[in-house]
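User: My collaborator sent over this chain with a note saying "see what the structure looks like." That's all I know about it. Can you take a look?
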Amino acid sequence: MHHHWLLWGGLAVCCAGGLALVAHARWLQSQTLKKCVLLSVGVHAVLAIVAAFVGVARPASWGQADDGRMTMHVVPVAESLDEAAADVAALPNEVESDDEAAAASKANAAVDPPPPDLVPLLPAVANADDASLPADAAQSPAPLTTDGARPTPSAIPPLYTDRVGVKRAAAAAARGGSLETERAVQAALAWLAAAQASDGRWSVVEHGGGVERTVQGHDRRGAGAKSDHGVTGLALLAFLGAGHTHRDGPYANVVARGLTFLVERQRADGSLAGDAEFFAALYCHGMATLALGEACALTQDATLRPAVDRAVRHTLAMQHPTTGGWRYAAGDRGDTSQLGWQVMVLATARQAGLDAGIEPAEVRARTFLQSVSSGRAGGLASYRRGERPSVAMTAEALACRLFLGLPVEHAAVQEALESLAAAPPDAARPNAYTWYYATLASFHAGGPQWEAWNARLLAALLPLQRQGPGALAGSWDPDPVWGGHGGRVYATALSAMTLEVYYRHAPVHERQKASRERTQFASQTTGIRLEK
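Assistant: Without extra context I'll predict from the sequence alone. Here is the result:
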């Protein structure tokens, strides 16, 4: 038998498997040239070692029949995904250097063993016996239509009721909005509707995204160019935030096409990331899941539940089981930028009636927030543990804390608000991402600080919207920070959502006050005896 053919055949299989693994892990997405050179050197080194062993053992056997035993030495090589994350190419997040990322990844590998197989926290598919979930919905979701009964106001979760009908205008007027802010929102939605592609998506590249601006000195190689699922989720959230669903309103067909695009392209594991790069995938999944979840909660549309169910299970599976954070892959320790979108996914899942596994995930999320907290009261937050706090991450962490139940009177809330007040919106330095989370946090905290922040926000954001006739009227130009990655759709959707804050969610501070009053009333009436 020609054993050397077995040797070379086995070596070829190993090489092919290794290359397939590298391609599947998207290891070559960053620092491609360096990694190609490294890969080439490694492959040639392995070939040289094998050839040396074979030559020493049987120097005259080439091309001849081999008799006796031949030993093949296989040297396994492992490369973790985190070690490939040196050049961070995420959608909006904070910057870390290549050396810091590599050091953090090695530390993670040393400290955290691979997580055990996660037990599914929600059913994998719809129960065929459940009349509210079609038996075939999980396997082959039907395209959404505008048909179907409009949900009654009582069926809409209280968190979202201010979006609907006359309540929207009343909420805007009472909480800091105006006719001007509503006109800006409507103009933005009109531009977004016109920008939608025929297949239901919003394209990043067609609207100025995927452009590398070397933010803060880092070349992220045009990250965001394949993030259509993410910006589609943001665009849908802008429509849903103003009460427009796939079953009601002048944009019903627009919303229906967008939702159908996401549902029909959902992966088997529940991910809604689409074709997004590794570093942008979980951002896109979170944004798209929020859109599906809100549409399901607002309309009580049972046909959306299987897709929302699978998407939420994917979010739960991606959370680190110990640190409570999310980042790029399952088992990553987490960062605050990812946390904001996934915490909102948990809150939206509750509104859609998907409770299983949510509470433990929220407990773990609180643990992560503690790990990135600093300041005299713990109100400041950093991108990752041990780093310096920033305004953007402090704002995002505060929004998460409030949605996770932190009382607005807590000293950490006040410390965070002081940090935001020191860096108000400035039209000369637009940052849609920071303004969105800072506005969300300020609004839900309430109080005099909200009035001051809102005034500065409107003075900065409204003049930046494109006016007058033309194809860009109603949109916002991509900002110089993260706008290059997401483009005009990203900038316009986030800006519209920022101006919808007055009615998009019932304010946390009002809900906490109402809860205290109910508790106080119950305690006061306990033990009262009715006399005839």
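A starting point for your reply to your collaborator: The longest helix spans residues 32-57.
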